[in-house]
Amino acid sequence: MLGGSVAGLLAARVLADHAEEVMVVDRDELAGGPAERKGVPQGRHVHGLLARGLEEIERLFPGITAELAADGGEIADPGVDLHWYVGGARKPPAEIGNGIASTRPFLEAHLRRRLTALPNVTAVRGRVDHLTATGGKVDGAVLEGSAGATEGERLRGDLVVDCSGRTSRADAWLGALGYEAPPRRSVNVELGYATRLFPRQPDDRLDGARGILSITEEPDRFRGSVAFAVEAGRWIVTVGGYHDDRPTLDPDDFSSRLAADPAVALRQFADRDDALTDVVTFRYAASVRRDYHRCKRLPAGFLAAGDAVASFNPIYGQGMTSAALHAAEIGAYLASGATVLEPAMSYFRRLSSVVDSVWTLSTTADFRLSHVTGDRPKGLWMTHRLNDLYTRATLRDADVHRLFLRVLNLQARPELMARPDHLVRAWRAAHRPLPGIAPRAR
Ligand SMILES: Cc1cc2nc3c(=O)[nH]c(=O)nc-3n(C[C@H](O)[C@H](O)[C@H](O)COP(=O)(O)OP(=O)(O)OC[C@H]3O[C@@H](n4cnc5c(N)ncnc54)[C@H](O)[C@@H]3O)c2cc1C
């Protein structure tokens, strides 16, 4: 397993049911409790796990939800415990099942602890430099040499899975073995995040909720702000903006964005002087997918999963849940009697359908923003009309909001939103008057 982050940990858990020995290799030290890691710089920003993601993780590690809760993770229904605002108007509550709000290092540490407790799993520290292959089959990886060494340690394996994230070097690794790089698609979103942590008393709520997600859409300016209760008595507060409106490291910029947020309860973070951390930022340039299913030739013994296959605009919070679904596809592939002696084309074909749903959801929404460039999905205008309808309807009707959340949480396929009975309900709801709107900041 190349990469021991969320995708690598979940895929390794699946492999542990099928292999005598599973080795997880990561450039970072994987031992120990929750800690920020160089290899996962996004880990300092808000990281909600969707309801479908928690379901999948619980299936792989039975009892982990209770463990996360016992250690302070906020097990919360995103439709009820999280309040959703669009332009200051709140969507009605809609139950969909629990996800989790915690910091990213906390979630990773729990997954890691459970995985490495398995007798046939080991974690190794090292940066993968290239892959090795014999007779059309990948059979291992070579780590970068330590100081003075020209070549690092060679690791052997029957199956190599690339889970090294969005900066994966698989294109070069496959190229060096004489294979084509998978075709790439990208959508340049130019998103920026800025985040701070604040102290929280155990009973603190925001507007009665354990989290708030607020979106402000103005002509040509789209902003989002999020505050989630997380473990160890803290709020994680992230603000986001695009292109030339990306947040900066300046604490005044952070505060002024929150002061202007139409969700009144978020404004308290603008005035607080008790932040536990400085502002940290993240620049997310583009959503990228590698279409392995379109490769004409691939070596046997090689799979890929997680962000190494597809990385999406993080505002939809779907990355870790996608990684869990990819792990499930690896399980289905191995259970189907597949052999590591043949290229895993059927795995990559099935995976592309999992990726398609998420990719279409996130990229069609992104193309609403005029600065966004890239591979435009087909039927964009129609999807935009559908999105507009659902945005209006979800503010007015709890059942429509539930359907929308189930799609967003990857519990239901996006096509369901276009089913005639759902369309009629959404259309009727969209034409009802809107419940009261909170006053805007001046
Ligand atoms: C700002 C931001 C916010 C996000 N918020 C959310 C959210 O709210 N909810 C959500 O579900 N998702 C979110 N995501 C997406 C989420 O972070 C990823 O989808 C998820 O981490 C998938 O992880 P991965 O394991 O595929 O890759 P990564 O988490 O990027 O991990 C890659 C791993 O590979 C290792 N590695 C890399 N190269 C090598 C090498 N050559 N040799 C050895 N090891 C290597 C790294 O050290 C790292 O451990 C967010 C992403 C960003 C950027």
What does this structure look like?
This protein has 442 residues and is an alpha+beta fold. It folds into three domains: 6-75 and 99-185 and 289-363, FAD/NAD(P)-binding domain; 186-285, 2-Layer Sandwich (D-Amino Acid Oxidase, Chain A, domain 2), CATH 3.30.9; 375-430, no CATH class. The chain is built from twelve helices and 19 strands. Strands 4, 5, 12, 13, 14, 15, 16, 18 and 19 form a nine-stranded mixed β-sheet that branches. Strands 2-6-3 form a three-stranded antiparallel β-sheet. A hairpin with a 2-residue loop joins strand 13 (211-218) and strand 14. The longest helix has 22 residues, at 345-366. It is globular and about 65 Å long. The structure holds flavin-adenine dinucleotide.
Structural domains: how many: 3
Tell me how many strands there are.
Answer: 19
Distance between the termini: 52 Å
Residues in β-strands, percent: 15-25%
Bound molecules: flavin-adenine dinucleotide
Oligomer: single chain
Q: For the CA atoms, what is the radius of gyration?
A: 22 Å
**Class of secondary structure makeup:** alpha+beta
Q: What is CATH's topology name of the largest domain?
A: FAD/NAD(P)-binding domain
Give the number of helices: 12
Q: Indicate the CATH architecture of the largest domain.
A: 3-Layer(bba) Sandwich
Name given to the CATH homologous superfamily of the largest domain: FAD/NAD(P)-binding domain
Name the helicity range.
25-40%
Shape: globular
Residue stretches low in confidence (pLDDT < 50, at least 5 long) are 437-442
Q: Can you summarize the main beta sheet?
A: 9 strands, mixed
CATH structural class of the largest domain: Alpha Beta
Whole-number average pLDDT?
94
